[in-house]
Amino acid sequence: MQRTLILILCSLFFISSFAAKPTSVDITYNYLSNDRNESQAQAEQHAIERAKQRALENAFGVDVSSIVVSLDTETQQNGTFTTGSDFFSLGGTSVRGEWLTSKEEKILSSRHNGEYWEIKVYVSGTAREKSGSPIDLKYAVISQPTDRETRPRFFDGEDLLFRFSSPVDGALCVYLVDEAKNAFCLLPYASDGKGYVAVKANTDSLFFSSKTNPDADEMVMTAEKDIEHNVMYIIFSPNKFTKARDKKGGKNWREQNLPRSLSYEDFLRWLAKNQTADEQMTVRTELIEIRK
């Protein structure tokens, strides 16, 4: 079969062309897990994120896209040529708003029905309508340099590595929030005085490895309890920005060897301020489980 023509038609609706002001949003949301291996902490985190997604959908709606592809074909069989056309379509939706800051995130109820977690949550905060397309970031939270996909679970003593790439030049910061509500600055490195990591477009970068960068801060996952959960914030913008104002711990040997940090509340205030000022800033979160 010979394909002689490919025609792609794309239609987009409800795209805003102006900068929108922040608005208040809130929702009470019921979440049902669809993963039997999901822990309670993972289910509750997913419930919060789904609630935010639904609140954005309710406030701003969705963008609808459709692609129709026409393939003109020519087939030869027993010396006879036949022609025809094949059609197929692809459709998708994306939320028109983005979450800026949370005022309240509350777990109202959390129960396991024997197979899955049923979580009821309430979230409130500020959000705004998107004015452009999101940046297609690629990243993975890993423990081995050869890994390509994010690991949902680590064990005490395992290395933490981070792989990242962007289609555009920009600035990158990465924070890790622990269960004690401390926000640790992992990127930029402690010795980097710029306050951000400069990222080159279309470059696959591996962080926290001294093999790729002798100045890298190497990270090791630790857990004092049987199971702990951290949230990693990946923050990127094509516009330059600098990390939050933090400080180095120093009460004991362990704290002296931790990354610079600030309180989770101060971190969220810093993040909200930067997202409000920069509509192109992209924020992604990853829940990480650490086991002893």
Quick structural summary:
With 292 residues, the chain is mainly beta. The protein is built from three helices and 17 strands.
Kindly describe this structure:
This protein has 292 residues and is mostly beta strands. 13% of the residues lie in helices and 49% in strands. It has helices at 40-60, 253-256, 264-277, and strands spanning 2-12, 23-32, 62-77, 80-95, 97-112, 117-129, 138-142, 153-155, 159-165, 170-177, 182-187, 197-199, 205-207, 219-220, 227-237, 261-263, 282-291. Strands 8, 10, 11, 12, 15, 16 and 17 form a seven-stranded mixed beta sheet that branches. Strands 7, 9, 13 and 14 form a four-stranded antiparallel beta sheet that branches. A three-stranded antiparallel beta sheet has the order 1-3-4. The longest helix has 21 residues, at 40-60. The model is unreliable at 1-18, 65-73 and 85-93 (pLDDT under 50).
